[in-house]
């Protein structure tokens, strides 16, 4: 029986490096503070570092830190080493597939992987083994990525804390006494702890950006539909987005290019294009998004806004009216789970069951009406960007709460999650590309996030400006 917090596969295995006669200083090459995914990708391409040794180093870090972080549910050690060996042989033969070739990354454990359990952190799916991989996995494999394993999350993605999981709560890599956020908590924690060089998560109300902010990493929610959700266990199909988490904006860009449908933009030279220092009109929605902020969050974000002005940007106060109705999410979640709830309600965590059942009494007419409103809202979303190019807000109004506080006062769990997700959720409703980047630390050393959003389909603009901000704050 698998115990909470214990990965299913901790067989690290042994692998001999075939990278003979090349730089064998793997510790230096894989130092999390010195190497980005992009830098490592180039090192792999030029044969300065072996995919096998790189993967082995990640697996060793998982073995060391995962027992306390609980970021992974399933560690795919044997298959990861096999993929790394294949990548090594291909690159030695001159068949380099791109910047992800031989790079170890993780997947949120609601993304289907053929032949490997995909549990959604639930007893209901504990032994569920898909026969086909999700589209996003197929695209990653096509690019030669090494899949390290499946990462812990808030059960069925219905929460912003990753406190509710059949495998135990996820801990923050900056301070394990605090939550990692959710629902992609394991993915953000793994990246923040260097247990891989990127991850793929899902985001229905902020589930990529919020944990990225709390763990001090970068998380991108693309335009709705830009990344295929086929093979990803849904929370709400109308609001679900699939996207990357990584340590830097450029790393997130590489992952996004690999998984995006159609034109994988942004253009490859988008970072060089920033050298033109184009003046951007930046919208600052003080009402709602800047209200009731933790003082340290407020101070960090104001400092970031000052930095943005130094980039030559024109800050403009704007007014946004978020739609806080949750009818569509509640109805779609209940529809997906209704049959399982009728058969085996005891296999859900009690709090998840309570949340899913909030959609039980929503009528078809009520749902269709709200679904039509959502469609109309997205058709008009371009008007948000008639007077500004981008919108900037705090990612979360408060830093991460402690795990002990939420365990001792369970009645605070949902209210705290709703506060943490307050600023992220509206951008799922609008369906526009939105990113969270680090913008400082509290006195306790907890990360603070800055959220940047742009027009539909303009991930290039969002990533370009996020990169400029990240560089200015470095």
Structure description:
By secondary structure, the chain is of the alpha/beta class. The chain has one domain (26-323, 366-473): Amidase signature (AS) domain (Amidase signature (AS) enzymes), CATH 3.90.1300. Helices cover 38% and strands 12% of the residues. It has an 11-stranded mixed β-sheet. A hairpin with a 5-residue loop joins strand 10 and strand 11 (447-453). The protein starts with 25 loop residues before the first helix and ends with a helix.
Question: Brief description of this entry?
Answer:
With 474 residues, the chain is α/β, with parallel strands linked by helices.
Protein traits:
globular, 474 residues, 11 strands, Amidase signature (AS) enzymes, disordered N terminus
Helix/strand order: HHHEHEHEHEHEEHHEHHEHHHEHHHEEH
Number of strands: 11
**Rg over alpha carbons:** 21 Å
Strand % is 5-15%
Cross-sheet strand order for the largest sheet: 1-3-2-4-6-5-10-11-9-7-8
Count, helices:
18
* CATH homologous superfamily placement: Amidase signature (AS) domain
Helix coverage percent of residues?
25-40%
- Give the integer mean of the pLDDT values: 91
Total number of domains: 1
CATH class: Alpha Beta
| Protein structure class | alpha/beta
């Amino acid at each position: 029986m698998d115990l909470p917090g214990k990965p299913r596969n901790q067989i690290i295995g042994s692998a001999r490096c075939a990278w003979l006669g090349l730089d064998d200083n793997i510790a230096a090459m894989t130092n999390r503070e010195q190497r980005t995914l992009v830098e490592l990708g180039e090192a792999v391409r030029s044969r300065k570092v072996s995919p096998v040794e790189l993967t082995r180093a990640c697996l060793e870090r998982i073995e060391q830190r995962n027992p306390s972080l609980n970021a992974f549910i399933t560690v795919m050690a044997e298959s990861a080493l096999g993929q790394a060996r294949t990548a090594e042989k291909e690159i030695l033969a001159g068949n380099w597939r791109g910047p992800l070739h031989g790079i170890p990354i993780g997947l949120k454990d609601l993304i289907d992987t053929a032949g490997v359990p995909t549990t959604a952190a639930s007893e209901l799916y504990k032994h569920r083994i898909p026969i086909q991989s999700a589209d996003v996995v197929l695209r990653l494999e096509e690019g030669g990525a090494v899949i390290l394993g499946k990462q812990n999350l808030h059960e069925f993605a219905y929460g912003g804390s990753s406190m509710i999981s059949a495998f135990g709560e996820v801990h923050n890599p900056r301070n394990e006494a605090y939550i990692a956020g959710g629902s992609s908590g394991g993915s953000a924690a793994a990246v923040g702890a260097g247990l891989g060089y990127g991850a793929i998560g899902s985001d229905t109300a902020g589930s990529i950006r919020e944990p990225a902010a709390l763990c001090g990493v970068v998380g991108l929610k693309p335009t709705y539909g830009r990344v295929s959700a086929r093979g990803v266990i849904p929370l709400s199909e109308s609001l679900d987005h699939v996207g990357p988490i990584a340590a830097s904006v450029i790393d997130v860009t590489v992952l996004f290019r690999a998984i995006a449908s159609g034109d994988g933009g942004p253009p490859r030279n988008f970072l060089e294009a920033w050298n033109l220092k184009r003046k951007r009109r930046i919208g600052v929605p003080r009402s709602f998004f800047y209200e009731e902020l933790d003082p340290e969050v407020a101070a960090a974000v104001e400092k970031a806004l000052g930095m943005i002005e130094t980039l030559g940007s024109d800050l403009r106060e704007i007014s946004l009216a978020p739609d806080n109705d949750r009818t569509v999410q509640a109805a779609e979640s209940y529809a997906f789970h209704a049959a399982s709830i009728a058969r085996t309600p005891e296999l859900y965590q009690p709090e998840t069951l309570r949340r899913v059942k909030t959609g039980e009494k929503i009528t078809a007419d009520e749902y269709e009406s709200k679904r039509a409103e959502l469609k109309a809202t997205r058709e008009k979303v371009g008007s948000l960007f008639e007077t500004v190019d981008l919108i900037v807000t705090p990612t979360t109004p408060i830093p991460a709460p402690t795990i002990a506080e939420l365990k001792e006062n369970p009645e605070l769990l949902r209210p705290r999650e709703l506060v943490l997700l307050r600023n992220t959720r509206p951008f799922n409703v609008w369906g526009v590309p939105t990113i969270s980047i680090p913008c400082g630390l509290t006195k306790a050393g907890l990360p603070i996030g800055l959220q940047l959003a742009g027009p539909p389909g303009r991930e290039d603009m969002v990533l370009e400006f996020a990169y400029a901000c990240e560089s200015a704050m470095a």
